[in-house]
Known about the structure:
Layout: H1 3-13, H2 21-27, H3 31-38, H4 59-65, H5 69-86, H6 100-104, H7 118-141, H8 160-175, H9 177-180, H10 182-189, H11 196-204, H12 217-221, H13 230-238, H14 245-270, H15 281-305, H16 310-324, H17 336-339, H18 341-357, H19 362-387, H20 394-397, H21 399-422, H22 439-442, H23 455-462, H24 467-476, H25 483-494, H26 496-499, H27 502-517, H28 522-525, H29 531-546, H30 554-567, H31 569-589, H32 596-605, H33 633-636, H34 642-645, H35 651-661, H36 668-684, H37 688-703, H38 715-729, H39 734-755, H40 767-786, H41 792-805, H42 814-822, H43 825-839, H44 846-860, H45 870-886, H46 895-918, H47 921-931, H48 937-952, H49 959-967, H50 974-987, H51 996-1010, H52 1016-1031, H53 1038-1050, H54 1058-1063, H55 1065-1079, H56 1083-1100, H57 1112-1127, H58 1135-1151, H59 1161-1171, E1 1177-1179, E2 1186-1189, E3 1201-1204, E4 1210-1212, H60 1218-1233, H61 1238-1252, H62 1255-1260, H63 1267-1282, H64 1287-1295, H65 1300-1308, H66 1310-1313, H67 1322-1334, H68 1336-1339, H69 1345-1362, H70 1369-1396
Amino acid sequence: MSHSSLSAQLASLHSxxxxxxxxxxxxxxxxxxxxxxxxxxxxxxxxTKHKPSVLHADTRTAAAxxxxxxxxxxxxxxxxxxxxxNCSPLFEMSGENLPWQTxxxxxxxxxxxxxxxxxxxxxxxGMIKEALYLLSSAWGDAASTIAVSSTTNVQIGASxxxxxxxxxxxxxxxxxxxxxxxxxxxxxxxxxxxxxLFERLLQLIDLAQMPHWAFLRPYSAAVGVNGVPRxxxxxxxxxxKDNGGGTTLVKRVCELAKRGAKIHALERNxxxxxxxxxxxxxxxxxxxxxxxxxAEALHLQYSAIGSIDEATLRCxxxxxxxxxxxxxxxxxxxxxxxxxxxxRSFGHILISxxxxxxxxxxxxxxxxxxxxxRGAIESIHLIQSESHDDDVDIxxxxxxxxxxxxxxxxxxxxAMFSLVESNRARENEPDDGIQRFLPLTKTGGRKGLGCRxxxxxxxxxxxxxxxxxxxxxxxxxxxxxxxxxVSCIIAMSLSSETKSHGRCHENNMAILxxxxxxxxxxxxxxxxxxxxxxxxxxxxxxxxxxxRGEKTTFEQIGTFLATLKTLNSVGCDTGIAFAVTRASSIxxxxxxxxxxxxxxxxxxxxxxxxxxxAVSQGxxxxxxxxxxKIYTGENFDLMLPPSVALEHPSKDLRLDAIxxxxxxxxxxxxxxxxxxxxxxxxxxxxxxEVVSASAEGIVSLYRNESLNGIFFLQNSVAKxxxxxxxxxxxxxxxxxxxxxxxxxxxVAQVMKENIDIDHESIESEPDTIYDCFESIVxxxxxxxxxxxxxxxxxxxxxxxxxxxxxxxxxxKSKSILMKKSMTSPVFQNIIQRCIxxxxxxxxxxxxxxxxxxxxxxxKVDDVALNECDEELSELIMDASLLVLRxxxxxxxxxxxxxxxAIVLSSNLGxxxxxxxxxGNVDEVTRLVSNLCVIQxxxxxxxxxxxxxxxxxxxxxxxxxxxxxxxxxRPTLSSDGAKRILSxxxxxxxxxxxxxxxxxxxxLLVCITALCCHSDLSVRESALDFFAIIESSMTRGDACAxxxxxxxxxxxxxxxxMRSLIMMDGLNALxxxxxxxxxxQKDGELLKELLLTTCAEIATEYLILGNDxxxxxxxxxxxxxxxxxxxxxxxxxxxxxxxxxxxxxTIFDHFLHFPSSKCPNPALMSxxxxxxxxxxxxxxxxxxxxxxxxxxxxxxxxxxRSYSVGNANGIAHIDPYPxxxxxxxxxxxxxxxxxxxxxxxxxxxESMNQLVLGRISWCNGIFPKLKEPVQECIIKTLLILRSxxxxxxxxxxxxxxxxxxxxxxxxxxxxxxxxxxxxxxxxLALTALLDCIRVQxxxxxxxxxxxxxxxxxxxxxxxxxxxxxxxxGSDYVRTCVINALLALATNNDxxxxxxxxxxxxx
Length: 1401
């Protein structure tokens, strides 16, 4: 009887039984087979038939479908064929050693498990196991495309998932794999634990019979929970309970990963030569899933117990060794790890996890590390066998194969290195006799460079192909530090134990030779860290000293030393010195027998010992004759080569080494090496004689032309030597200071010659070299500041400074040397850099820069300025101002400051005299504006005020005007303004009588404008200043009368308008001026004086004696006053009088403004204030209403005010003055002639925007102008727009109310027919057409519009006949048509309007 029929009968016997809730819980996770046989209520309805299925969503649907076995088999066979074509050839029905023909053949329909023998069933179980793993791998190939069960397409041959379901359906219903092969079924599909298929499998399997899988029972009853979380699986694998569930799951997971590797190996063997050997996704999922589960499980175990459970380790170790080790079986050529790199990587990952989570035994670590390397060797051999013949070099055959080899080797080395470096169990184990640490870095308690590599692992590693290239690959491409491993390889290759393995030792020597010369490893040899080269060299020499005359290896080891010398000479020298010194100490203590001859022979072979040196002269034998040559410690020192002897503790040996090194220099390279060694010794030695000898040796090398000056320009050398010089100059030993001065002069000279060829190039040089040069100069300066002037060292320091700054020049005295140094462009550039550095927020070496600046100020005080010292004068001024700004506001007047004040006053006074003598008024103005804002009051009184007084003693009459320029600047601080007022008060008595009227007139304008200052205290000082100046004048003088007109209104406390100025200077000044002119008897005199003085300021004092535009303050002053006079009203300051007395004069002056000068914004504000007069707008009635204010504000504006009175009336001047007409036409004509003049173009913009383009001028002034004037304006604007491309001219032209006749004349004139930029006049014509189109509405009422239209038709016809492609005629024709349409449209509107509203006769 078949198993299926028996199950049905048993189920029917229990169909009427009822079950309790306890039975319901017990039925959870029991599977469909158990539930059917036991009649559990989990089936919900006992009268319903059920059938196990993975194809259908539930067992009832499968029972209802009742598909016969023949159909199930046919569907499965078709599905296997689909999988063989779209997934893997392992699904071929006819494949050898494959289970498909037996399990799915036609005879399988008659298979009954109960009728078979145990042997036959075991055979079938094995084939079912293979089939389940293969089907699971196929399911993994389509893992990303699998949908939920309700939407999965199960059509035969539709997809990989559907094919797997049909094949698995036949295995479930025919062979009951969910009953008899349940564990293999779970293991095979465990990677797909989050899919609906795994959920269906859990519902079929009786998990109660498998306690090792009991953790899955809760998930078998939950429908639609999206599978089993990976965390649950990992937790079960990490469990250490007595049921062994975790251990069993660990084994099954490892077997699953191994099964994935086997699947890939089978597919790889079936692949054609040359095909890609990438692991199929389904097989790869087995390995990656296993690695993820085990990694999480080991982490959970470590978190719980602080290590990995012993049982877990015992499960893992066999699989790990099987993954990493090569094949040891004679029946199989390659191991799974070689055929499947992911399986080998699986082993590497688990090893790293085990090493990190627990302490492994030495034997296990050695087995792992050796297996890793041997496995990598096997993988490389497989790559070589598949890519080329064994006798062909892989690098020549295939670069891709070489990359594969490097990747395999690199992975193995990283895994092995992490194992031997991180294993904590070996840290406390004693050394087994092999010296695995390089000796130099091991002594002194420092951590060694090497690593504890087992000897068997070392032997395997040295057999790894392309080992040096792999180490370089790790260093360059993977950015992994391989220094420790390289150290270990060197130490173990040269140790006495490895020398006994003849052929292996020869291979090791060959690998070392390649390793030293490997290009990709050079950075670890010649890098900044010299410990590896030093340790290697010391180890080699020490091994030679302890050996017993193995001369056969000396030549090869000597070659190693020579290579190391070329790679890093400093490290090699240090290593030799260490080894020889150590051998000397051992020999003295008689600890071991030291073979000195071996060391001597080795150094000779390596070329590190001069053959001419009589090294053997002092050598003495020690001991009996039968012993080999034994030397005492004191004689070993004689073997040191000079470069090595520099590091010896003995002073005499170091001095002798310096003398020998500098005697016979054979090449430039050798000179650089010697100089580098001497620089190092100069910086670090603690003996004064050695320090001085090192400095003298460097200088002698350079002066003998053995050493090129470029040596000192290397960044590292420059930094070292500048730092060393600065430190040595701080010494109290005069010999050290003298040698440092000698060296500093030479080095600084070299730097100066290379970075200051033309002085201009200094700033473009790298900052590093220049900073070093500055540091050296500063060191010399410190000596000059510290020592007495009569000291011999001071003379040497002066010579060194002059040698650095002015090479080749000689002087007899220190004073002359110092003057030459101060006037050196190089030193001036240094000071300029210091000033810039001290002025910035981010400064470096503040003290050094301050010292240099003060040294410069003290020493340059004795240098007289002549007419060629403009740069020096500017530098002195900048340095002095910088120092003055550093003084704090609350500084106390001390004795030290008094001496500083003398130096500062002397230097600044000298600068002022020079600037006045050279006519550099702009610099004087800058100096004055900086002096008056110095923060410290004491510094201002002791230094700045003295300089301001000194300036007044100059013979030039410009100084008062300079003060007025400074005080009028709007950016000047309140304190600065008040200080300048005090200075002006002091210098007024010193003004020449001839200049006094002009100065007083200028003061009247400046002080009046200062009444609008934003600060209340400044306005109050200005009002008081009126009374002060007036009191110094002669009564009855015209200027005194003008002053009195204003002072009588504002000066005294009872003055009627003082409070207005105090509360709101900007709005009150027009009222004060109006009252001064109208109410005072000398008002007309005041008006004329103010206007003429403004004109004089603008025309005569904006371009000063040095032809520089000074004007910011004076321009602002004039603008403020002109605006105030305009606001005062037409009855006080009429537009005609303002234009006649000031505006016309200033405007004519601007027409001849130098084209080479670039006007500043303040000057352009003045230009605008004058040009706007031409608009002809007048203020007919000033506001004489009542103003109620709440009080003054410090800012200069009233806080709140209310006014009651008449608003200002705006009108146009009538008639428009002829002078203004002439000014406009003259300017426009000049603008046409000087189209390229930048200032004229800027003036033209102001004219167009402020006057000609204004609606008020266009409608109120232009129509009243004479016809020739109108035509001139139209013509010039048209030329400026079309020829000069001034856009504002076109906008102004658009706004003019032109008639049809205006347009006719303009179109017919020459200005519209041709221009410089347009031979046909198309640009000008286009501009006119735009105007016609815009003004067509008004032109429609013009009687001459028809004549204009006729002219346009003629133009249109001419353009159509004469047009050439690309000349712009097409666009102009379009513009003509648009203009005609606009005229016609507006003309029609006019006719219709006339028809509707006929005019009265």
